[in-house]
Amino acid sequence: MLIFKGGSPTLYVPDCGICQAIKEKVELFLGPSVDDYVNFVKKYKDDSATLENAENLKNCADNNLREEDKESVHSLLAKIDADKYC
């Protein structure tokens, strides 16, 4: 966004950290409970195909992601959140 400060144009970059809903979704997706993740998805889209897909995706992630993978995701999100330029 371009704003004018003292008559001069200045580029303004808003704090664009990751929204709370996305943070919560990632935490639930990487967490241990399939039911908690599916119930979170259900708050936004409550149809059987979406919920079945969410359950299958969560189960796949639980079976294939290592703890190191999950830690890498957490680290990336923390870096994005901390960077004022996102």
Describe this structure in words.
This protein has 86 residues and is mostly helical. The chain has a single domain, classed as Histone Acetyltransferase, Chain A (Up-down Bundle), CATH 1.20.920. The protein has helices spanning 20-30, 34-44, 48-64, 67-82, and strands at 2-5, 8-11. The chain has a two-stranded antiparallel ribbon. Strand 1 (2-5) and strand 2 (8-11) form a beta hairpin. The longest helix has 17 residues, at 48-64. It is flat, with a radius of gyration of 18 Å. The two termini are 15 Å apart. The model has no long low-confidence stretch (mean pLDDT 86).
Structure, briefly:
With 86 residues, the protein is mostly helical. It has 4 helices and 2 strands.
Key structural traits:
mainly alpha, 86 residues, 4 helices, Histone Acetyltransferase, Chain A, single chain, 9% strand, flat, 2 strands, two-stranded antiparallel sheet
- Helix percent reads 55-70%
The total domain count is: 1
Our estimate of the beta-strand percent is 5-15%
Task: Compute the number of helices.
Answer: 4
Outline the secondary-structure elements:
Layout: E1 2-5, E2 8-11, H1 20-30, H2 34-44, H3 48-64, H4 67-82
Antiparallel strand pairs: 1-2
